[in-house]
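Q: I'm writing up a methods section and want to include an example of the input and output format. Could you take the sequence below and give the corresponding predicted structure tokens, formatted cleanly so I can copy it straight into the document?
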Amino acid sequence: MGISVEADTVVSNNLVEGAPLFGIKLDRGPYLGDVAAIGNVLPNCRVGIAVSAVEGSQTTLIASTIVSGSTAGSVVGYPCVEIVTNDLLRDLAPPRRM
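A: Here is the clean output for your methods example:
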């Protein structure tokens, strides 16, 4: 695993390459809150970012992060170790230029 955090944390400007499970794990179920993952580069990890997807989870920000070559999703939600959502980025519309 790459980096794992729970609450009241900023994860920024890291390179995590080839993690066999998660590049970044934002975890702790309903105790997850006030976490920001910004400006990270996550090539060739099984999952780029895994974020807790349980009732009670609090504010989480994921921004300006590059995920490439992931085999099980760029950003996925999960309750513990089992992924329970599809890739949360897959169905987003491409960014618009202003």
